[in-house]
Amino acid sequence: MSKFNSERLSVEYRNGVTTTEPIIPRNHTLTHSDFTAELFLTIGTQFAWDKVNPDMRDEVLGEWKTNRNCLYYNVYLFIDQGEYDLTAATRRNEVFRRELSLALTAIRYGDRFLFDLYPNLDYALIIVNFMSTHPQFARQESWGTFNSYSI
Q1: Spatial separation of the C-alpha atoms in residues 75 and 129, rounded to whole Å
Q2: Residues 6+ away with beta carbon under 8 Å from 12
Q3: Contact criterion met (CB below 8 Å) for 13 and 19
Q4: Beta-bridge partners for 9
Q5: In this structure, are residues 102 and 50 in contact, taking their beta carbons and an 8 Å threshold?
Q6: How many angstroms separate the CA atoms of 122 and 150, rounded?
Q7: Three-state helix/strand/coil letters over 9-50
Q8: Which of 27, 29, 41, 77 lies in the 20 to 30 Å Cα band around 13?
Q9: Residue 141: helix, strand or coil by DSSP?
Q10: Cα–Cα–Cα angle for 14, 121, 148, rounded to 5 degrees
Q11: Quick check: 110 and 11 in contact, CB under 8 A?
Q12: pLDDT at residue 75 above 90?
């Protein structure tokens, strides 16, 4: 796993979102540059599809959700939709798994003002959805809580 460097993170707030409001709807789109190792976090009421590279699809998407008054954080990772063979999908799955802790740390740090105001968010369950046409990669997993990803 790469080490998180806060100096390489840029944060953009979209219309309808401030550093502390709202919690729902609040969506995170995390992208990166392979060349500079910079991370780009866009926080809005919707995902920032304009920031997503349709050829790479290596973004991390996350949103706050509720289920029966229980707040949780839902993450979506795009492994494939059939365009990658098993070898390429295996490699993409490995990269996402290796870098996901860094991504969650970047999201937690980038939205730290919200977490500072609402400390209970640090204890919300993180549910990760690995999206793939290959059954061995298409799964939903618990990745703990954000208090494990704070710096």
Answers
A1: 6
A2: 40, 41, 42, 43, 48
A3: yes
A4: 39
A5: no
A6: 8
A7: EEEEECCCCCCCCCCCCCEEEEEECCCCCCEEEEEECCCCHH
A8: 77
A9: strand
A10: 110
A11: yes
A12: yes
- Going by pLDDT thresholds of 50, 70 and 90, the confidence category of residue 2 is confident
Q: What is the pTM of this model?
A: 0.96
Sequence-separated contacts (24+) of 16-22 with Cβ below 8 Å? 16/44, 16/45, 17/43, 17/44, 17/45, 19/113, 19/114, 20/113, 20/114, 20/117
pLDDT (tens digit per residue) in 18-73: 999 999 999 999 999 989 999 999 999 999 999 999 888 999 999 999 999 999 99
Query: What radius of gyration, in Å, describes the C-alpha atoms of the chain?
Result: 15
What is the residue whose two structure tokens read 């969650």?
104
Sheet holding 60-67, edge to edge: 9-13, 39-44, 27-32, 60-67, 70-78, 125-131, 139-145
Structural contact between residues 94 and 110, judged by C-beta atoms closer than 8 angstroms: no
